[in-house]
Structures are given as structure tokens and as C-alpha cells.
């Protein structure tokens, strides 16, 4: 039963990662791209929590990974909004398609 | 069995609300849909005995999504979804990549021979993670601290208006303006 529960939770995490990837790649708005990335990290959060609960509850490593994923999310939000504000101020741009010259 | 059903239900909520983020017209609704997805994940962590990390996720994401809603309303041309519109590109390619990632990960999940759980979870998972970050994993905490500090400095540097300290240009080769008061007036 433990293994089945782990597999179900990891499948949910995979669905979150897939949905997030779809969003991050398909959305034009910078903020919506960030939401897609957040969903990917949401999947990582769930998978790391499940790894701790069903594989290594005696070791703290997976819990520290959850903590790291939370920090990654905070950093991504802060820097993402700062970049969104900076480019909006400079060019009144709020979509990734309008900033294609930044590619490469 | 109960744990499996509860986790499956919370997972279903997390995925459905996650999909809704990219379906609804209103940007504000998309933000709160993402919040619902995070709340379901936080609740799942609570069910898995991760009291501290579950609560951390719930509290942090509530505030983060509230801030995100403000940015949505500030920057988006259609925050309330009053005019149905889609702002997407390369939908088919993105859907293929997303579906491929899901299938690949799911096949890995269901074909891996997972080891048995070595023993019962500790009495206090919060104490376990607390002792870890103050002991063996302290380097992680030190790095996280530096990264967050760098993020704060970089975020402020990027988000503020270019002020009087930027008057000489990025290479400091622009000529100084003819100021009525030497050094420039404070803004």
C-alpha cells in the first residue's frame, strides 16, 4: 500500500510538472510564464515530500529538498517580478514575444 | 487506504486547479486557481506528516499569490477577464512537450522498483529538519541565506527607477548635466 501511495503521489507530481511546462512554454504574458514555472516547482515540492514520507523518513535530506524548492520559488517570484517591472518601465513590454531581441 | 484516498483527492484538486490556471480568461482567477493548487499540495504535505513544511507552503503561497494578483492587475491588459482573449503561442508544441514530460515521468514512476520504507517516521518531523539545517545541512542554510540576500539586492536594483546616481551612464562616460546645484538635486 505504501508503494502504491508513493506512485500515486509521484504521478500527481508528474502531472503538475507537465502542466507547468505546457504553461511556461505556451503563455505570452511574462507573469503567466512565471505561473507555469511555479507549477513545475509545485510538483517538485510534492515529489520531495512523498520521497521523505514513503522512502526515507529516517533521513532529513528530502525535507531539506522541500525547503530548497520553497526558496527557489521565492527567489523566482522576486527576480521575475523585478525583471518584469524593469522591462515594463524601459519599454512598456509585458509579453515575452515583445522582448524577443533578448534571446540568445 | 484512507491516506491513499485523501492524497489522491488532494492530488486531483492540485492538478485540476493547476490546469485551470491556463484555461480561465481572468488573470485574477488564474492566480487564485494557482493558489488553490498550492493549498492542495500544502495539505498533502500535512497528510504526509510534514507539519512544518506543509504550513510553510500554505502560508507562503497565500501571501505570494496575493502579491501576484496585485502584479496581475498592474501589468495585465485584461486582469478581470471581461473580454475573452487568449495570449498564447506555439500551443501544440508546448502541449507535446508537457505531455511528453508527464508520460516520461509517469512511466519512470510506475516501472521503478521502489524500496520498502526502512522504518516508521520520526515522532517529530519538524525537529528532524530543524536539527538537520543546524547540523549536517548547515551549508545549505548558509547558501540559502546568501542567495536570498543577493535576491533582495538584485530585486531592488532592478525594480527601482534609475535615480541621480545613474546620471553618468552605465560606463560613467556621460557628461554631467548643468545642475543648478552641484551634485544634482535629490528626487
Automatic annotation (TrEMBL), chain A:
Transmembrane segments: 6-25, 37-55, 61-88
GO molecular function: NADH dehydrogenase (quinone) (non-electrogenic) activity
Bilayer disposition of the protein: Multi-pass membrane protein
Uppermost EC category: translocase
Entry EC number(s): 7.1.1.-
Keyword Hydrolase attached: no
Keywords tagged on the record: Cell membrane, Membrane, NAD, Oxidoreductase, Quinone, Translocase, Transmembrane, Transmembrane helix, Transport
Catalytic activity: a quinone + NADH + 5 H(+)(in) = a quinol + NAD(+) + 4 H(+)(out)
UniProt-annotated location(s): Cell membrane; Membrane
One Pfam family hit: Oxidored_q2
Protein family (similarity comment): Belongs to the complex I subunit 4L family.
Primary role: NDH-1 shuttles electrons from NADH, via FMN and iron-sulfur (Fe-S) centers, to quinones in the respiratory chain. The immediate electron acceptor for the enzyme in this species is believed to be a menaquinone. Couples the redox reaction to proton translocation (for every two electrons transferred, four hydrogen ions are translocated across the cytoplasmic membrane), and thus conserves the redox energy in a proton gradient.
HAMAP family attached to this UniProt entry: NDH1_NuoK
Known partners and oligomeric status: NDH-1 is composed of 14 different subunits. Subunits NuoA, H, J, K, L, M, N constitute the membrane sector of the complex.
The protein, known as: NADH-quinone oxidoreductase subunit K
Source species: Isoptericola haloaureus
Gene that specifies this protein: nuoK
